[in-house]
Amino acid sequence: GTPQGMSTLPCRSSVWRSSHRSICRSSRTGDGVNTAKPPTLMDAQKLSPLPPSPSAQLQDTYGPVFTVNLGSRRVVVLCGYQAVKEALVDQAEEFSGRGDIPAFSKDFNGHGVVFANGERWRQLRRFSLTTLRNFGMGKRSIEERIQEEAQCLVEEFQKTQGAPFDPIFNLSRAVSNIICSIVFGNRFDYEDEKFIALNKLIFKRFPGFPSAQLYNTFPGILEKIPGPHQTGSKCSQEIISFILERIKLQQATLDLNAPQNFIDCFLVKMEQEKQNPATEFSLENLVMATFNLFFAGTETISTTLRYGFLILLKYPQVQEKIHQEIDVVIGRDRAPTAEDRGRMPYTDATLHEIQRFSDILPMSLPHTVTRDTRFRGYLIPQGTYVYPLLSTVHFDPEEHKDPETFAPERFLNENGSFRKQNAFLPFSAGKRVCLGEGLARMELFLFFTTILQHFTLSSPVDPQQLSLAPEVSNLGKVPPRYQLCLRQR
Fold first, then answer.
1. Do 9 and 70 form a contact (C-beta atoms < 8 A)?
2. Peptide bond before 52: cis, by omega within 30 degrees of 0?
3. E strands along 367-426, which residues?
4. Within 165-261, where are the H helices?
5. How many Å apart are CA 444 and CA 230, to the nearest integer?
6. pTM score, two decimals?
7. pLDDT at site 121
8. Are 232 and 106 in contact (CB under 8 A)?
9. What are the residue boundaries of the structural domains of the chain, listed by start?
10. Ramachandran angles phi, psi of 103, nearest 5°
11. Buried (b) or exposed (e) across 29-40, using 16+ Cβ within 10 A?
12. How many other C-beta atoms lie within 10 A of the C-beta of residue 87?
């Protein structure tokens, strides 16, 4: 199974403190949420990083809604599908605020889409969704770009000639090129030095540095102290410099009547609103919105693919069934298309199970309540941070039988047709659902099926010796590094 350790929360267990006076007040009794014998420092230190998970243990003790202190901040934690769904979907507006993750959000300073709130968030999210849709998110033009990039990746993989290799940067560059084509208007050669450097920075930044967990808890103190907790921000500044350089290049050649990509469209909007003193279409928001897209659109998808291929190495019988379905539905003579997904229930089920099982964003990003909010009989004050633990949705025993087991069949009915599962929220839910969900789903399917159409994957070590336990597990989960062998089919 996949360990869901205390480290999935944005601070180490040693900085968790009990919440004797809850942030949530009952409208009837004044009692706090589940404060009978609240979690203590000693309890947290005893928790094992292996299943049963600490978050599940706390849920068993305190219920699906409880309060903890992260440093000096008191936060509400939601566990299990029902509680998360009631908050993010049934009370979507109230839970639509975004909280800070100091180690990340200090780079954005409230700009861009992901860490913005209020009118800025609404305007930039609407613009980003519309622009992505116009440039083909879920439409044919972006599908063709993904198909072409998948073929480039196949050609790169063929160069390995069956020798063991680590696929980490090949996958990252291929996925990154899709966002590059949308944001910048062009893809990069895999050997481009700036492109390689950029992807290494994104890879390094994605899971968060261990020292950043402490920074997230005591930002005011640690911001003034040099040390490894500052490394992540340095990575971000280098990525931002790359984006700024590209924006300047595109400003010089911009045709206001014929925008070619996301940056062009934003620059046109900036020109249209330059007389509006309250406009949200500024250079800083352009840089940060681009950073959001680049960051979210690269490492999350490539990490999911890496986890997926590792799982296929561990369970070769799953790979064999996918090969059979590819041969029947697609064959070997044409590229996979997005339409094929509806005729490939086992492959579709496997991709869903990979996303559920790999659970690469186990705790989502912090939400805040936008006003005083009644939830399950309690009153949560405006501005309170809320963490919906997505790992407790994906591993909810009330929703998934044997959740620690990898089983594509849970997404199939008795006739072998694809079956949706409610407790499946890899893109989160509600007002803050990932704005690139459609693009990400298409990329995962087309890259996955194109690679498996051309190759049989195997491991140089015995599959039974392969571990699926994450190498890093805090804000993001990262699979262990592994060697992959590809044999042409």
1. yes
2. yes
3. 367-368, 373-375, 378-380, 385-388
4. 168-183, 193-205, 210-217, 219-222, 231-253
5. 33
6. 0.87
7. 95
8. no
9. 6-488
10. -65, -25
11. eeebbbbeebbe
12. 25
Q: What is the mean pLDDT of each run of 10 residues along the chain (489 residues)?
A: 32 34 41 38 28 64 88 90 98 96 76 92 94 68 92 97 95 94 92 90 67 66 69 83 93 92 94 93 95 85 96 98 98 96 98 97 93 94 96 96 96 97 96 93 97 98 94 83 96
Orientation angle between helical segments 283-314 and 168-183, nearest 10 degrees: 150
Name the strand (E) or helix (H) holding 69: strand 65-70
User: What tokens does 215 get?
Assistant: 């920074």
Residue 456 token pair: 């049989």
Cα distance between the two ends of the chain: 30
Report pLDDT for 257. Answer: 92
Cβ-based burial of 21 (10 A; exposed 0-12, middle 13-18, buried ≥19): exposed
What is the distance between the alpha carbons of residues 55 and 39, in angstroms, rounded to a whole number? Answer: 11
User: Taking every pair of C-alpha atoms in the chain, what is the biggest distance, in angstroms?
Assistant: 69
Q: How far apart are CA 480 and CA 151, in angstroms?
A: 26
| Residue 102, pLDDT score | 77
Taking the domain 6-488, which CATH number applies? 1.10.630.10
How many residues are there in the chain? 489
Question: Residues forming the annotated binding site?
Answer: 434
- For residue 229, give the DSSP letter: G
**Annotated binding-site residue numbers for heme:** 434
**C-alpha span between 203 and 351 (Å, rounded):** 22
**What's the pLDDT at 58?**
74
Within the chain, how many helices (H) and strands (E) appear? 17, 13
CB distance 394 to 423 below 8 Å: yes
